[in-house]
Amino acid sequence: MPEPRRPKPVPTPETKHFWEGARAGELRLQRCRSCAKAYFPPRPFCPLCASTDTEVFRASGRATLYSYVIHHRPMPGFEPPYAIAVVTLEEGPRMMTNIVGCAQTPEALQLDMPLEVKFKTLDDDISLPVFAPAGAAS
Amino acid sequence: MTRAVTAIVGAAETTRLGEIPDMSQIALHADAARNALADCGLTVADVDGVATAGESPVAVAQYLGITPSWLDGTQVGGCSFMLHVRHAAAAIAAGHCKTVLITHGQSGRSRVGVGGFPGGAASLSGQFEAPYGIAGPPTSFTIPALRYMKEFGLTHEQLAMVAVIQREWASRNPRAMHRDPITVDDVLRSRVIAYPFHLLECCLVTDGGGALVVTAAERARDFPRKPVYVIGTGESSETPMISQMEDFTTSRAFRVSGRAAFAEAGIVPGDVDHLMIYDAFAHLPIYGLEDLGFVKRGEAGPFIWERNTAPAGKLALNTNGGGLSYTHTGMYGMFALQESVRQVRGTAPAQVPDVHISVAHGVGGMFAAAGTVVLCDERG
Description:
The complex is a heterodimer. Helices cover 6% and strands 36% of the residues of chain A. Chain A is built from 1 helix and 8 strands; from the N terminus they run αββββββββ. In chain A, the strands form 2 sheets. A 5-stranded antiparallel beta sheet of chain A has the order 6-5-4-7-8. In chain A, strands 2-1-3 form a 3-stranded antiparallel beta sheet. Chain B is of the alpha/beta class. Chain B has one domain: Peroxisomal Thiolase, Chain A, domain 1. A 10-stranded mixed beta sheet of chain B has the order 3-2-4-7-1-8-12-11-9-10, with helices on both faces. In chain B, strands 5-6 form a two-stranded antiparallel ribbon. The termini of chain B are close together. At the A-B interface, strand 4, strand 5 and strand 6 of A face helix 4, helix 5 and strand 5 of B.
């Protein structure tokens, strides 16, 4: 369901592959061919070794819950309380996200719990990667 | 100890603090600047360097009537003023200017004469953080805390205790916005803003400002006030996106900035008599105590819980009451510096006995940047 009031990302040339991937239901990261490290957010060179020999690849979508807050105040496009989380992707990089498919409570949201990526469609152009407890029904 | 090249000879806050709906932001800069110049017996004609954040140094210089030969508009958030002190010291040593005025003014509460913020939906944080419901610092600066709590066993009660002890200090400061004592229960029963943070673990939103006058150490004795020498400074940055902070239990910017300042000053944490750590939220003094080396990793929560940072404790910390209870205009770093100057001068409302060395450590953004200033009552 479209959520017009939620802040919407505006892709740039350097991040286009990420948002095209998300629209196609893929979580795309970049990897350095020189040092083999995966990285995020997108940029046209490796932040670890500065090489420009990089490639885009499809990430597994598996992650664990690194940390979060549960926001209790009103926010356009959201129904409080909702968790704003940071997850560690299986490939190493971390990203901010929301956790879906479970209660937004400290009891349901245990640090290090396994998660898997889902995509939330905001409009025809933008789908947002979010994460759900691994194995839960979408 | 290192021999100081510069000193702070003038320091003052805005005449009023808290709620000032009848003054615009630039007028708050000017009020603080005029008070700081009066504090050291100078006029704008004596100033040849201007540094500020939140307003352009060009605008502040023109508004006050200064013809600058040196400008610094470094804007890295609330610790910008720590960086200004550092840059001013270097500029004075290099002969680029002689007398630097550093100003802060912010209509954080009343929002009078405040510029708008650009949307930034194409910035990296606009693309990869904002869509997940970030609503300002209370929902982003706070995200690392649960990871710290899990790694080190920090309890909700220990986190609440940070606010309780800072209120004890605030109760000794007539200009503090909140002065009534609170208990751990009061904190934990206050409204949840962003779990695990309650209202009383989040900083105030106020109007106000402050200014500093920095000049060469050899001139410092020519001014009416007791000189406060700048013996060490540091600065660093890590990331504009909280999600990209490399370890949620420690700030790289804090460590790099703190190390540089202590090394330049030639001191160790045990030499410090008074400490200010920018506290936008209750977890920041915990990170600061550890990352600056005052306690080992994981020990800051119990250290505060055992009242070591309370009045009459071992290490006087945030003695104005901090951003949690004294004031927080948005870029609080200036107020941490002001309290450090007062403590070294011996003029603080909650004066700590025999302060020779004070450290003011600031954060910018959400663990994005840091600045550290070591002040001393002797030139060294």
